[in-house]
């Protein structure tokens, strides 16, 4: 067996000189610049940078509760733990719903005007929900083409994301009332540091290169590995490249299953979780070696 070890994730190498800070260490010049760049990228009215995507979701839900008398929420079971945690922290009654077997996104249906829908753009794969109250979990979605932001869309800048600020989050909204309340909460409990914003701005410069790299890897893996890859009905940044397969994975390469179901027993969620393998797809990874090693390993263990 080869001794080569390939990690699941490795951040993009960036060399830059630390910029001068102007007296304030959070919510100042570089945080504002990062917000402006994302605002221009998505042509959205308000972008609020915060300390993490998880806290960004929490304060958005809290602001939503202050504005709207909605007590019930629906969200997919195939999602990160912070979704469940944020809903619990804001005392919203919520129920989990199943995902589609092909896109791994939320199964949509007709919703009442008294429900909050909290769908996930799974691995950057954009979904669109037709409902009165929608807040999108777009943790992986920075770089995807988004037309519908709902009341708000929350993105993550955590270390494993396509664009990272080492840690941080972004709240995008066209609702000025919601934005005002979110900013008040952000300033009290979730400020982004200037250092995080500087790193975020530097990685953002490479967005087009990273998107092209991700598309290339998705197409290469899909062509050469046997399994069901995520179906993309609208657009995706391919932030996480996974497929449903019975292939075995060689131990010297790190793979992930990613989302452990937040609720067991949902048919499609259980099926996807049982078969999914998420592949290393970071900038510069030796994807040809990974592909050949998977095929070789499965030939050996037949």
TrEMBL record:
Signal peptide: none annotated. One of its GO terms (molecular function) is transaminase activity. GO terms for biological process: polysaccharide biosynthetic process. This is DegT/DnrJ/EryC1/StrS aminotransferase family protein.
């Amino acid at each position: 067996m080869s001794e080569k070890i390939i990690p699941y994730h490795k951040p993009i190498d960036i060399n830059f000189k630390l910029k001068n800070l102007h007296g304030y260490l959070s919510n100042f010049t570089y945080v504002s610049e990062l917000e402006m760049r994302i605002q221009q990228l998505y042509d959205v009215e308000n972008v609020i940078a915060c300390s993490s995507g998880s806290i960004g979701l929490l304060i958005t839900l809290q602001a939503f509760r202050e504005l709207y008398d909605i007590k019930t929420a629906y969200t997919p079971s195939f999602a990160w733990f912070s979704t469940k945690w944020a809903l619990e922290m804001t005392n919203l009654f919520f129920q989990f719903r199943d995902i589609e077997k092909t896109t791994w996104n939320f199964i949509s249906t007709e919703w009442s005007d008294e429900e909050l829908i909290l769908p996930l753009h799974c691995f950057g794969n954009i979904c669109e929900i037709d409902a009165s109250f929608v807040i999108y979990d777009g943790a992986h979605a920075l770089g995807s083409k988004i037309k519908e932001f709902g009341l708000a869309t929350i993105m993550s800048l955590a270390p494993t994301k396509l664009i990272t600020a080492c840690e941080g989050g972004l709240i995008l909204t066209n609702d000025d009332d919601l934005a005002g309340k979110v900013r008040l909460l952000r300033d009290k409990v979730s400020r982004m540091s200037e250092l995080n914003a500087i790193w975020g701005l530097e990685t953002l410069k490479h967005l087009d290169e990273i998107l092209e790299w991700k598309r290339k890897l998705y197409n290469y893996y899909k062509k050469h590995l046997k399994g069901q890859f995520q179906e993309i009905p609208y657009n995706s940044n391919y932030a996480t490249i996974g497929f449903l397969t019975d292939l075995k994975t060689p131990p010297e390469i790190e793979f992930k299953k990613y989302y452990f179901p937040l609720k067991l027993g949902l048919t499609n969620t259980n099926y996807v979780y049982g078969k999914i393998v998420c592949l290393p797809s970071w900038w510069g990874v030796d994807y040809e070696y990974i592909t050949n090693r998977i095929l070789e390993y499965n030939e050996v263990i037949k």
